[in-house]
Amino acid sequence: MSNYAIETKDLGRVYKIRGNKKEREIRKELIALEGVNLTVERGELFGLLGPNGAGKTTLIKILTTLLAPTSGWARVAEHDVIQAPNLVRPRINMVSGGESSGYGLLTVRENLWMFSQFYGMPSKEANERIVELLKIVGLEDRIHTKSSDLSTGLRQKMNIVRGFLTNPEVLFLDEPTLGLDVGASRDVRKLIRGWLDADKNRTLLLTTHYMVEAEELCDRVAIINKGRVLACDTPANLKRDLQRDAIFEIETSPLNGLTDKMLAEQAEVKKAALTETDGGAKLELVLVDESALAVVINILTQKNIKVLRFTKREPTLEDVFMERVGQRMEDVEKEEAPNESK
Amino acid sequence: MKANERLVYSASEKVTGWRLFIKTILARSYPRIIGQQREKSWIFFEIFMPMLAVSAYVYVYRAMGAPEEYVGFVVVGGAMTAFWMNVLWSMSSQLYWEKETGNLALYIMAPNSMMAVLLGMALGGMVATTVRAAAIILLGTLMFNVQFTVTSFSQLFAVFFLAMTALYGMGMMSASLFLLLSREAWHLSNLAQEPIYLVSGFYFPIKSFNFWVAAAASFIPLTLGLDAMRQLIFPSGAALGFLNVSVEITVLIVLCIVFLIGAKFLLDYMEKLAIREGRITENRR
């Protein structure tokens, strides 16, 4: 028996985008995934971290047999997702953030029972497990509520219970805490960790664009952007590479025309991200060492920018992302948003 | 971290094969059957509204002095309209709505057969619609004093069963075509609705058509089903029937086989195509 719950080799997916009537002849192609090589061990909680449009959902769709790759191959629970989807499907389940699955006229219990039947679960066992899981996520008092009467957060909790209900070998959670409040997100993270710890043969692949979530939950993380995996390791190892660098956050008066490009041109500055705030600005800097701070302060002084506060901090996954991609995730998403709407 | 004992499950005895198939059919039919009890608006939209159309035809026939059996023809036709509407809007275009809500991805990702999902939709729809159709017949009979004279209950049951099986088989087949469609599913259903009312003879005997038009219309199972039922429940039905009841039963059996087998193959093909083209969850390819 292989120790890998998930394996991919040179996995790629190209979408052909249909144009409008005038552009019908012009076939546009979008590379959603390119050359993805990943292995996820049994018992692992593996995170895919990347901005919206990075290819995380496309990868999950391929692994859950919903989408065929255009190149490479993928195996889940030791079976090829294209050659043997019928052997993969009984072993997996998936929950997506913000999904509106199920039927509004059915109660929470009825919806969950219905989906359990598609996996062949005995009704008695399904109903017992529904009650248990609803208790864990704090939804037991809504068991007889019609799902159309649930708030977005409660509905997402119900969806999450659906994923765990069939006790899959490999569970895929695509942005599971999207749109949830802090308390609900915490409950969900607790359930995820508890479920995995309860049985070492369970594997969970989670996609998120919340750095804290990836850092808190995942055994290993792959950073993905524009369809390519840029780094893959434990959060600690990913951050270790940055620990030689000095990371500073500086709050200043207005920027007076200073741009992140101007700062990044300096040899001592590895990465720079500037954000305008109310009446000032915030600089996030990755410097080669602490002494390089003097260079930055000098530039700020020349531009007549006052330093209001500065802090040196330990690297986070956000810094790792910025180091690998060259931009903060937030900025990548802002850039991608207009392209997606075209 | 200590594992949560409530999340430790013993090996589950999940069923597979035909038992999973049956479970899926029953589970998918559940929302349709239970939904009818929870949302009573169907009483207005699916009984009262069709009764208006039925009444209009009844008064036209009476004004013209048409034989009284025509009133019965219209009432039965009005009841069968409910099945056609159900197949069109809750079978054919249903997979488009399932795609929009995310259910389609969950159906395909689960180990169940999509054929069982469609059969569940059909079973649920058929049960719920039978209640509606029975209500229309009851109301129409009381309002217009329709007299029924059933010549053979066994043949009547066989015709109804075969017509329903073939009709929902056709619905399952077209549902698999709709797997690839997005918003155009809505327009196609709209486009199919009225012409079928006409050529299936919902409100008049199809014998009124030229033979070839009636023969072509017989491809829709309700056409022959309705014609045979009228022949079996009204004294003058046989005289106004298109073909002999036995012939119509034979054709309906053929239609059942063609549509159910066709649905199975088309569904398998369309599912593979949709996965290849990326249409299960979105419309870019």
Give a structural overview.
The complex is a heterodimer of chains A (342) and B (285). Chain A is 34% helix and 29% strand. Chain A is globular. The longest helix of chain A is centred in the middle third of the chain and has 17 residues, at 182-198. With 342 residues, chain A is an alpha/beta fold. In chain A, β12 and β13 (280-287) form a beta hairpin. Chain B is mainly α and 285 residues long. Helix content of chain B is 75%, strand content 0%. Chain B has helices at residues 17-38, 42-64, 69-92, 94-101, 103-109, 114-144, 153-178, 184-199, 211-217, 221-233, 237-240, 245-277. In chain B, α2 (42-64) packs antiparallel against α3 (69-92). At the A-B interface, β1, β6, α3, α4 and α6 of A face α1 and α5 of B.
List the helices and strands and how they pair.
The complex is a heterodimer of chains A (342) and B (285).
Chain A: E1 4-17, E2 28-41, E3 45-49, H1 56-63, E4 71-76, E5 79-80, H2 85-88, E6 92-96, H3 108-117, H4 123-136, H5 152-165, E7 170-174, H6 182-198, E8 203-208, H7 211-217, E9 220-225, E10 228-233, H8 235-240, E11 246-252, H9 260-264, E12 269-277, E13 280-287, H10 293-302, E14 307-313, H11 317-325, H12 329-341
Parallel strand pairs in A: 3-8, 3-9, 6-7, 7-8
Antiparallel strand pairs in A: 1-2, 1-4, 4-5, 9-10, 11-13, 11-14, 12-13
Chain B: H1 17-38, H2 42-64, H3 69-92, H4 94-101, H5 103-109, H6 114-144, H7 153-178, H8 184-199, H9 211-217, H10 221-233, H11 237-240, H12 245-277
Strand content of chain A: 25-35%
Helicity of chain A, in percent? Answer: 25-40%
- Gyration radius from CA atoms of chain B, angstroms: 21 Å
> Radius of gyration of chain A, Cα only, in angstroms?
23 Å
Shape of chain B: elongated
Distance between the termini of chain B: 44 Å
For the biggest β-sheet of chain A, the strand order reads 6-7-8-3-9-10
Task: Give the topology string of chain A: H per helix, E per strand.
Answer: EEEHEEHEHHHEHEHEEHEHEEHEHH
| Number of E strands of chain B | 0
Mean pLDDT of chain B: 87
Rough shape of chain A? globular
Figure out the total of helices of chain A: 12
Please give the most extensive interface between any two protein chains, plus how many residues each contributes: A-B, 51 and 47 residues
The assembly state of the depicted protein chains is heterodimer
Structural class of chain B: mainly alpha
- The helicity of chain B comes to over 70%
Let me know the average pLDDT of chain A.
88
What about the largest sheet of chain B?
Answer: none
